[in-house]
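Bumping with the actual sequence this time:
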Amino acid sequence: MSSNLHIAFRFLTAKKRAMLMSLSCIVLGVGLFIVTQATTSGFEEFFIKTILGTNGAIRIEDKIQYTMRSMAAGGFSSKYEIKTKEGRKYIEGIEEPKLLIDAVKRFPNVAGVSEVLHGAVIMRSAFKNESVRVYGINLDDHERVSDIRRQIVRGKIADFPGALSGSIIGIEMAQRMQLELGDTYQLEVGGQVRRYRVTAIYETGVSDIDRVRVYLNMGEARSLLQKITGASFLQVGLINRDRAQQDARSMTEVLQHNTKSWQEREKTWLEVFRALRISSAITVSVFTLIAGLAMFNTLAMIVMEKTKEIAILRSMGFTREDISQIFLWQATIVLTIGTALGWVLGAVITYGVSKTPINIRGIFAADTFIVSWSIWHYVTATVTAVAMVMLASLIPARRAARLEPGDVIRGTAQ
């Protein structure tokens, strides 16, 4: 052990209570920072997973058509045409889904493509009537771009493809219409009424989906909606979801269809989660700020009380850098112990929180707190604590280094 570190330990034990206060604030600051970031990041990640498992990473819909504007150049005999954003318009739906699917699959990051046809209908049960939306899908393709199989909470999805009159409905819809597995109901559109059976019931946790979305086999949906060709949109699954925005831009340019990534579709909710992470980090950082102020006050008091000892050390040949190091070592020791204990506290509380039962429905379905285990939460908490505590320790450390033995003897040291 170096002499500077040994002296730092000796000075540290002289102010045990003050140092314990700083230590406890560091532990709380680091621990709570880890917990809040783990929970907010966990819910955000779960929300993203729910959205990707329901609506896919990219949605392709509506053909883009540009209007041409003629501009004279060099007289009436010479003209050229340009495309402008103001002249862009959209043609609803996809006219040639098979050709478009083949083109989409050529993109290297694409994991799967599902053709979807949807339309508004009236659902009639023995208890009430409601407006819902039919989604026609090919199950094998749709499973590659969604979590529909894992979202089934009642029934067997394997029974769906073979049953022309079979359907998959949301759990909220089943509750509102008082339908159970095997029950029948009617769908009405354009004056025609058809009867369907509940093959399976799904739950995404997203109320806007579970309440209105009915899945039918593609052939049956085409017959019901009287749309023999075309599709409403293509749902695309990606290998790397983080590249969705870049891929969406490329697809828009190449395919000339309106293409939206999951980041663009869910921009509002993603901003909400980001704001929650930042606000929670600022709130719990108050404990670390208090630890820094307590450390500043403790070291300042040690400088005042150990003036003679500092003068003796300077007379013995200790340089100003040595004196600064002695006081910075004290802050480092407390910071190291506090950070280590804060990591343990954060991990223990995070684990306990992850087992706490809750009941969230609306934007996703969760029965316990969702947490994210990431080393970066621990790193960020440590960096925050180091920045605040060490910066607060620099002022008293520099003040101690400026003390001169002669000033101490004359009583003129400041």
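The tokens above came from a reply further down the thread. The mean pLDDT is 85.
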